[in-house]
Design goal:
The chain has seven helices and seven strands; from the N terminus they run βαβαβαβαβαβααβ. The chain is α/β, with parallel strands linked by helices and 246 residues long. The protein starts with 7 loop residues before the first strand and ends in a 9-residue tail after the last strand.
Length: 246
């Protein structure tokens, strides 16, 4: 039920962390994978690994903060594989702890452009083909931070909260067309972005952090036929960082 054979998936922010883990998992499940990020060498590494697993892969260099590059990304994906069946909006800027009083307005705009507006734009460009086909899966990578505000985390958490609302709104609009839209809210996960933003060594320093592959398994379920009954929801995948555990 979690096979993606014959499906085409586009994963943004696929060069590292959760996005990379999702792209690799989708390739292992048989999908054609369009992996996109800003660094060619890192994307080439991901696409090579996917091809080595026996699936097709296309690497596209794109900045999700630039609308023209998003248009080029959508065009490249559809030219190579036709309609995209699965979209994972994962690309994100993670900033360290900065108070609102000290937040650089340009950084604020960059975070919103990449994390939220970029997700809207690539979704808008790929949606018509999904509607025409009468099927599709859209997965937005939110965060435990999308569930509540936090000191010093304003821009990031605004975007992750926004992705949850975007998920619900879009799901209500496209359900009649056979398209499922869901979000995943990961808790603390050992990614390069997390390590950089919080100056940590990762799981060796904080064993509560999850492995990105754990989030990829949730994404694989949502991308597959097994999740046909699930749409318009945000799945909390907090792992050991769940507030219930203290």
């Amino acid at each position: 039920m979690t096979s993606l054979t014959g499906k085409t998936a586009l994963v943004t922010g696929a060069s590292k962390g959760i996005g990379k883990a999702i792209a690799l998992a989708f390739g292992e499940a048989g999908a054609n994978v369009i992996a996109t990020a800003r660094t060619k060498s890192e994307i080439d590494e991901v696409t090579s690994a996917i091809k080595a697993s026996g699936s097709n892969a296309l690497g596209v260099i794109a900045d999700l903060g630039v609308e023209s590059e998003i248009s080029d990304l959508a065009e490249a994906a559809e030219n190579e594989f036709g309609c995209v069946d699965i979209l994972v909006n994962n690309a994100a800027i993670i900033h360290g702890r900065i108070t609102v009083a000290d937040f650089d307005p340009d950084l604020w705009r960059d975070v919103l452009n990449v994390n939220l507006t970029g997700a809207f734009l690539i979704t808008q460009k790929l949606l018509p083909c999904m509607v025409e086909r009468g099927s599709g899966k859209i997965i937005n990578i939110s965060s435990i931070g999308g569930r509540t505000g936090g000191a010093g985390r304003s821009a990031y958490r605004v975007t992750k909260s926004g992705l949850i609302s975007f998920t619900e709104s879009l799901a209500a609009e496209v359900y009649q067309h056979g398209i499922n839209v869901n979000a995943i809210c990961p808790g603390g996960t050992d990614t390069e972005g997390f390590r950089s933003a919080f100056n940590t060594a990762g799981r060796s320093e904080n064993p509560k952090l999850m492995d990105p592959a754990e989030i990829a398994e949730v994404a694989l379920f949502l991308a597959s036929d097994a999740s046909s009954a699930v749409t318009g929801t945000a799945i909390d995948s907090f792992g050991s960082s769940n507030p219930l555990f203290g």
